[in-house]
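Support request, please re-run this one:
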Amino acid sequence: MDYKILSKFIKDISFEIPNIETFTMLQKEISKYNLNFDIKSKQFKKNIIEVNTILKLIPPEEIKHKMLTEINMCALISLENVNDSIDKKELEKIVLIKVPTEVYPTLYQTFVYLFQQAGIKNIQIDQKVDFEKLYNERKK
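Re-run finished. Output below.
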């Protein structure tokens, strides 16, 4: 089974710096935030699936003034070379590894751009994410 990304777009963005205290502390505290991914999918039509790759920065409890960030990159994929029965394991790997790996560079660039426009220049977010490793860790 193969797939093809028909389109990808930013479905939702939330980028909130709620007050000046948060902004002034952000440069120091941003490294304490955890990068988190959530991947959701649903069938759109026969052999067409919507895959949402959601990136969030999660602040730890000790941070008093928290920034809220979340970006949802949606990809519409077409499954190709599908016979009567779909291999669920292969489909799972397409949705949870292959598609997020393809859309992440755009997600990353958008995320960094938002920080730069907010006046935060040296944001350190992993430019490379191993979605296969995340998939295998989740399976354990």
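The chain is about 35% helix and 35% strand. The longest helix spans residues 88-117.
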